[in-house]
Amino acid sequence: MRGMMTVLTREVSATIIPSGDRVMLPEGSELRVMQTLGGNITVQDPYGQLFRVDEKDGAALGEEYAPKEKEAGDASAFHEEQVWDQLRTVYDPEIPVNIVELGLVYGCKTEALADGGHRVDIQMTLTAPGCGMGPVLVDDVRTKVGSVPGVKEANVELVWDPPWSQDRMTDVARLQLGWM
């Protein structure tokens, strides 16, 4: 679907990449779909500006971008790997690699709560400290981890030490980016 042109069927709120500012894209806007990973859609306007359209608004770009129904899972079968699976669905809107393979997740701790369910604490970083998309990615992580059956609390801490470098990327990420 990369590079496919589409026209918005209604006005949608979008995030400007890389500043992270929110704007309204008007109905009838012509956009090129650049990336559809992790449920969100990265589009480009005719002037070259990139925007991220949230998954919930995907149908405004066309039926093929409409959100898919998610199955409810069994909260009693919680396992930390479910959290990692959700983390692998979070993508930087400019890089077609998930945050786990990019090496942005520094830690993931799960703890059973006394009243049932689990708390998950994530430590993550960004590829650059001034990245305007940081709050958007943190919110994506919190939302997706919080959607795991059995998770009652999802805390995300943005850390800068150690600083991220390309050395933290997995071979999978390097391969996806054509660096191997």
> What structural class do the secondary elements suggest?
alpha+beta
The helix/strand order is EEEEEEHHEEHEH
Mean pLDDT: 91
CATH architecture of the largest domain: 2-Layer Sandwich
Give the end-to-end Cα distance, rounded to a whole number of Å.
Answer: 24 Å
- Biggest sheet: strand arrangement: 1-4-5-6-2-3
Radius of gyration: 17 Å
Main sheet properties: 6 strands, antiparallel
DSSP strand (E) fraction?
25-35%
Q: Any idea what the shape is? A: globular
Identify the CATH homologous superfamily of the largest domain. Fe-S cluster assembly (FSCA)
Spans of at least 5 consecutive residues with low confidence:
none
Share of helix, binned? 10-25%
How many independent structural domains? 2
Number of helices: 4
Give the strand tally: 9
Q: In CATH terms, what is the fold-level topology of the largest domain? A: GMP Synthetase, Chain A, domain 3
CATH class of the largest domain: Alpha Beta
